[in-house]
Amino acid sequence: MQGQQQQQAYDRGITIFSPDGRLYQVEYAREAVKRGTASIGVRARDGVALLVDKRIRSPLMEQSSVEKLHKADDHVGVASAGHVADARRLIDFARRDAQVNRLRYEEPIGVEALTKDVTDHIQQFTQIGGARPFGVALLIGGLENGEPRLYETDPSGTPYEWKAIAIGSERSDIQAYLEDHYDEDQTIDEAVALALRALASVHDEGLTPKRIAAATVDAESEQYIQLTDDEVEEYLVDADVLADEE
Amino acid sequence: MQGQQQQQAYDRGITIFSPDGRLYQVEYAREAVKRGTASIGVRARDGVALLVDKRIRSPLMEQSSVEKLHKADDHVGVASAGHVADARRLIDFARRDAQVNRLRYEEPIGVEALTKDVTDHIQQFTQIGGARPFGVALLIGGLENGEPRLYETDPSGTPYEWKAIAIGSERSDIQAYLEDHYDEDQTIDEAVALALRALASVHDEGLTPKRIAAATVDAESEQYIQLTDDEVEEYLVDADVLADEE
Amino acid sequence: MQGQQQQQAYDRGITIFSPDGRLYQVEYAREAVKRGTASIGVRARDGVALLVDKRIRSPLMEQSSVEKLHKADDHVGVASAGHVADARRLIDFARRDAQVNRLRYEEPIGVEALTKDVTDHIQQFTQIGGARPFGVALLIGGLENGEPRLYETDPSGTPYEWKAIAIGSERSDIQAYLEDHYDEDQTIDEAVALALRALASVHDEGLTPKRIAAATVDAESEQYIQLTDDEVEEYLVDADVLADEE
Amino acid sequence: MQGQQQQQAYDRGITIFSPDGRLYQVEYAREAVKRGTASIGVRARDGVALLVDKRIRSPLMEQSSVEKLHKADDHVGVASAGHVADARRLIDFARRDAQVNRLRYEEPIGVEALTKDVTDHIQQFTQIGGARPFGVALLIGGLENGEPRLYETDPSGTPYEWKAIAIGSERSDIQAYLEDHYDEDQTIDEAVALALRALASVHDEGLTPKRIAAATVDAESEQYIQLTDDEVEEYLVDADVLADEE
Amino acid sequence: MQGQQQQQAYDRGITIFSPDGRLYQVEYAREAVKRGTASIGVRARDGVALLVDKRIRSPLMEQSSVEKLHKADDHVGVASAGHVADARRLIDFARRDAQVNRLRYEEPIGVEALTKDVTDHIQQFTQIGGARPFGVALLIGGLENGEPRLYETDPSGTPYEWKAIAIGSERSDIQAYLEDHYDEDQTIDEAVALALRALASVHDEGLTPKRIAAATVDAESEQYIQLTDDEVEEYLVDADVLADEE
Amino acid sequence: MQGQQQQQAYDRGITIFSPDGRLYQVEYAREAVKRGTASIGVRARDGVALLVDKRIRSPLMEQSSVEKLHKADDHVGVASAGHVADARRLIDFARRDAQVNRLRYEEPIGVEALTKDVTDHIQQFTQIGGARPFGVALLIGGLENGEPRLYETDPSGTPYEWKAIAIGSERSDIQAYLEDHYDEDQTIDEAVALALRALASVHDEGLTPKRIAAATVDAESEQYIQLTDDEVEEYLVDADVLADEE
Amino acid sequence: MQGQQQQQAYDRGITIFSPDGRLYQVEYAREAVKRGTASIGVRARDGVALLVDKRIRSPLMEQSSVEKLHKADDHVGVASAGHVADARRLIDFARRDAQVNRLRYEEPIGVEALTKDVTDHIQQFTQIGGARPFGVALLIGGLENGEPRLYETDPSGTPYEWKAIAIGSERSDIQAYLEDHYDEDQTIDEAVALALRALASVHDEGLTPKRIAAATVDAESEQYIQLTDDEVEEYLVDADVLADEE
Question: Where is each Proteasome alpha-type subunits domain found (chains A, B, C, D, E, F, G) (predicted)?
Fold first, then answer.
């Protein structure tokens, strides 16, 4: 109670620190990320796999319109968790950033550089008043000089590079699964399967192709490619995590 | 009580998250949508049907002036629920956006692109201080490359695509009716009838042509066409939901 | 008490919704309208009649200077209820809007278009912070392509079209009278008389010419014409609602 | 007590309405007007008379420097009640407005037009945040097309035209005197005398020339002319309201 | 207590009036003036005398650096009471204003015009938010067309003209002394002496030259001339108010 | 409790001092620095060593992406403690500052000048409202005219020069170790070793190469050089503080 | 308690006066000055001496980097007490001001003019909202037309000239010592010694050269010259206040 009152005294905006040096609004934005369904990224030796879980509101909704997986440039994909509208804004920022790079330097933007431009943009929303932080985390995966790279952006504007990472709902359990089963030498096919099994590990009822979207950027094509529903289903069958149709 | 006090501590503006990562002002704007009478959109195999319910304040009011159904471009219609004045502003935005597209690219704007421009505009009103969110949801229906498309925008600025959707008052019951009776292969005539029956399902007293406005964008004409009162009445008779005149 | 405390938590500005989706400041602005004396508009088959009641503060005040009835353009009149100074600002806006239309398109502005430009202006004062809503409602009556039209603007920025409408003090009772006695086929003379009788229905002591101002826009002249005191008196005598001189 | 708490919840700024549609800050500004000594305007058949009462702080103060009576243009005078510094600002506005009119149209500005420009300026300070309303009322008197006109501006920005009017301290009692004794056919000399007697009616001890300033705009000269102390004394003697020298 | 709570509800800024029409922040700024040591101005038949009392913080402080007496232009001096830094800003404003006048019109600025420019500047700090009022009063004395003039500016931005005036600490007692002993026909020498005796009337221990600064603008030279310490001492001796050296 | 309430009254923003002259928000930002893992700088006779400790969130995170050690220019390195995203922004500032210096003066920027430009930037975020202070401290080490220099910037914007310094978690204990063992004549190799032993002094379990990053700027090469994992491990072995692999 | 509550009601910003006319935020900024270690200025017949005490945080800190003594121009030095970062900003301002003067007028800026430019800058931070006052006092000493001058600036923006002055911690006791021992005819060497003895008077344990920095501007060289540690030690020995080395 005392602790809660203490917290409430310092959590009404991004322009104030709490006495113990915390920015509560940024921490609350992280909670907004946890409210979103999970997204998973896995780096393989020959590419990056991104996989997202979609919340199903009604059978009449077109699942394909639930935007959690995006192409930022030919060679970079982005998966999000948290506020969809906030994610859309950051992805617009990323796309413009990637295009400007192509125009200026006539080459694709590096995944790290792209990530850091995005996180710098996010940081400003945690220091200057008059706005709120972005309530979304992104996984930015792609190829940089032929090497697969996978980054996370969080609401504080900090970039992290990962071998495999889960964000959103039940992040901890999925991450634990990834830590137990990750293998740096896996192929991109195995990476997609790992991501699916990791997500399935927190869904005892199995997964349906409809609620899953997945994409890869492989070292050969250097292209962002979204999997078809049939391909997703095949992976689910192979991983033995296919749910009965809802 | 405790929960309500908790909520009240974080619901005075869009620039603060609650400790559990919610934006209460956006959620309250969704309540403003529910205060409006219902609007329904149904996608058929050959077009999109939009139908709106109008609140009758006085027999001396011209029902035609209750603006819930709008033409955004030749091939796109919009139905709204919630604050009428807010809807008008968004529809002005949509119309200008569609016109700019015609001028720049000499072709009609895609329904998805138009929707996303509108939702990006809405999102800004949920992140930058000094204003309130839009208290309105829109159904944007039309043809894109000959294909019927139906989108929803909500006060958070998230776009969703639907086969059939209800917004506004008694949304849940109408949506349940739509889920039970929707058929992807229906014609646009059947879509109008479905929407009427869905609305009637929450009005035991039946419906009058005066309180209903309906429009279609069909694949043949590719034109937004608003139904006449007589046409509406015919549908009501056919669907056996015609009320006694008030 | 509980309800009032609840309300007071959300009624201090236009940039916050209440938990049930209301904008209290806009609702309070509607109360400001009700504090003003009544104004009435009646559409006839051959024109529009506007009639206003003026509060008498002192016999030394020039009643003609109580501004409730205005000419917006040759063919459009405006009657207001609520804050006089706010009304003046909106009417300035309407006049400039009408003049710009004449300059650009070399034709008189439509009554509907004029109304919607005004309501769009009003809406901005209900969404962007740093100001209050307009505490005034307007009746905008005139001719559009030879047809009489009568619109209302309210503090939320919503436009409505009416056959006959009362705003301001005792609006409900006057509106009830209008609903009971309105006839679409009436002439403009009968419309003025109806408005007078409707106003008199809430003033048992009768009406004096001094407290009344009336104007018409008829289909023949297509001109806004304000009635003289003698003409008003004649109507009062005819309608048998002339009060003893105060 | 309850009522006062209610009031206090809505009276801290001009950007919020109270639940009953009032703008308390504007009403409090009217109180600021009442704190000022009285000013009186009387319209005669051949001109306008303005008269002001000056508070005497010390015999060493030059009464002539207490600014309550101003020339706005050759043919227009202004008397104020309330905050002197606020009045000065509005009169600067009025003077510039009158000069601009002469430059643009090569003719003197109308008294009504001048008044309405001033009230429009005042209104902005009652709707847009970041400032307070003007704590002053003005009486604007002069000639328009040879006709005497007398206007009042109040802190809400509403213009009123009067035959005779008192503002400031003890306004009600003075106004009652004016209502009892006003005669539309009086000459400007009689108007000055009426104003003096009206002011004296609330000062049993009589009036001294020092505390009075008076000015006229007569139809013949069409000039604003301030009375000398001797002329004022003569009027006081004639009206039999001359006080013993303080 | 009740009264104090009432007051505290309305005294946090210049943009709100209290229910009885007062601007507490301006009144508090007047208290800041009273916290300053006294300054006195006396108008003689042949010039103006300004005299200031300086607070002595330490014998090591250079009393000459305590800025309470300033030359605004060749023919105008200014004495202040209240916040020294605020006074400096206003005097900078006055000096620039006087210089601009010389450049534009090639003649010295009038004392009245200069005063009113300064008070207009002060008024803005009492109406527009985001700043506080000036916590200083000024006495502006000089020659205008050969005539001595003496003005006061207060924190509300109101200008007053005086024959003799005291501002700052113990203003009332000194003013009473001035009222008892002022003579319009006195010479400027007598005016300096009167000011000194008036100040001494509230300092039983007498005055030292160090704590006094005095200046005159006489009709002959039309120059602002500051008295030397010796001259001040001579006046003190003549007036028999010389204190023992501290 | 009393003290805490006192503190809470003045700690909500950088624009207010507490009664005892403190800026709590700046002090809380210092707490944010202490929440970060430690960073250490040691000046040797022939260069500067920087060493940082990295928090390990998951074995799948790429430790190299935890940004605590940066190259600001060829001859200057920066180690940070506190908010990573804030540090990134300051380092961007420092890099641009260094580049501008090279462009303008065609020579490398001095370490002191660079530090002071950064601290000036930080200071503005402690005085002007609308933002929060930077929640990060930096160690800026490099060569200036061949001489090794080591500076600290703190959240108040004050620059300090050090021989050896620790910032972040357990700063006091590490600093005590440095004070006990620092030798001005040590070589840069010894400086790296000292930093490692100082960090190990607060980690009884020893250190792993993965959690350590280190860099030097030596007087010979005048280049910022980051140590490889193998080099770090060698130092750890030599200092006998190598932990068992986690 | 009552008094404290009273105070707390008016001390949250520079834009509000307290009922007794005080600006608490400026007074609290003066407390920030007192939190700093002492600085002393002494004017001699042939120059000015500045002396500062430095707080020792760690033996590893370079005392020379504790910035309390600055050269503003060739002939002007500045000593500060209070917030170091705030002092740096004011000194940047002073340096630019001095340089601009040299460029414009081709001569060194006067010490008084420089001081007043700085205090005008400080004053703005006490009147316009959105920032806090500067939490620092400065001693500005130098030569003006060959004459030694010594000024103080305080957080209110008031300039004072002094013969000898102490600011910062234990200001009162040091000032008392100065008042007892100051001699206007002393040489600059004696002035340095006086400042040292005055500082030593509040440090029974004596002083070390490390914690002292001193500078002079003498009439012969007209140059700001900082004393070496050896010179400081010599003075300490001469004044018999040398402490045992810490």
Answer: 10-32
